[in-house]
Amino acid sequence: MSNTNFTMRVWGSRGSIPTPGPSTLKYGGNTSCLEVRCGNELLVFDAGTGIRELGVHLKNQMPLNAHIFFSHLHWDHIQGFPFFIPFFAPGNNFTLYAEQKTGCTLEGLLSDQMKYPYFPVPIPKSPSELIFHDIESNQEIIVGDAKVKSYRANHPDGCLAYRIEYGGKTIVYSTDTEHSDEIDESLCEAARDADVFIYDCNYTEEEYEIRRGWGHSTWVEGVKLAKKAGAKKLILWHHDPLHNDDFIDELQNKAREAFPDAHAAFEGMEIKLL
User: Fold this and answer.
1) pLDDT digits (tens, 9 = 90+) for 18-47
2) 105 and 139 Cβ atoms separated by less than 8 Å
3) Fewer Cβ atoms within 10 Å of its own Cβ: the N or the C terminal residue of the chain?
């Protein structure tokens, strides 16, 4: 029988910097990493510190053939990359995607963070195989029976949101984006009728007033966008390092008053669509 599973699992949803400790046990302190299973295909979105634990989890499933999509290459989205165990194991194949940067390749940018004096071990040339793709917004990538489309997000240095379609269901991953006075039509298109809409809810409205231009949004704007797009479930993502579990509980409760199927992402959260 063919595998038609469509599931997402959160390995990290914190923003900016990891926040381990007793006050973040419920939602977790690892930075962004989302695992998506589309049948037999393994898709990973971002390589924040959460990807380290994903790598440990995958040790008994090797050899692997996986696709890793980067929203962008700020530190909190690549911090876990050097610590992903499967990169250093024989027989694994990884295809990596990120937005093309002028004068730089994805391979070059990821290699730079693993060079002296920042890191003692260079990016692995073997035994695993790494294939790098520099992509653009509004680009479609076919992975087995799944379709992944990239969309422009509003963030310093650029950022991509991704719409994943499989088996008639849709997950949208939209981290690190800042709203404006008007609805972001690009993200609204990305989130159209999505079953799961993951959105950057880093700030409260009050925090945003003193952090305009930093590239992040609020749950209030996430609700507006989810309603306009007709999304079914809203996932609050990219939790601020200063927000402890009690604070995020409160944000989630407020969001649910406006959008009942709103949930703050937490490490280990799993949503099965098929």
Assistant:
1) 999 999 999 999 999 999 999 999 999 999
2) no
3) N
Residue ranges of domains in the chain: 6-272
For 4, 43, 113, 160, the CA distances from 177, given in Å and listed in that order, are 31, 21, 24, 9
DSSP character at residue 221: H
Return d(Cα 248, Cα 111) in angstroms, integer: 35
Helix (H) or strand (E) holding 85: none
Alpha-carbon Rg for the chain, nearest whole angstrom, is: 18
Burial class of residue 220 (count of CB atoms within 10 Å of its CB; 0-12, 13-18, 19+):
middle
The model carries a pTM of 0.97
268 has pLDDT over 90: yes
Strands (E) across 80-212 are located at 93-99, 129-135, 140-143, 146-153, 159-166, 169-174, 196-200
Please provide the DSSP assignment of 222-263 as one string: HHHHHHHHT-S-EEEESB-TT--HHHHHHHHHHHHHH-TTEE
Task: Tell me the backbone φ, ψ of residue 69, rounded to 5 degrees.
Answer: -110, 125
Taking domain 6-272, whether its CATH number is 3.50.50.60 is answered by no
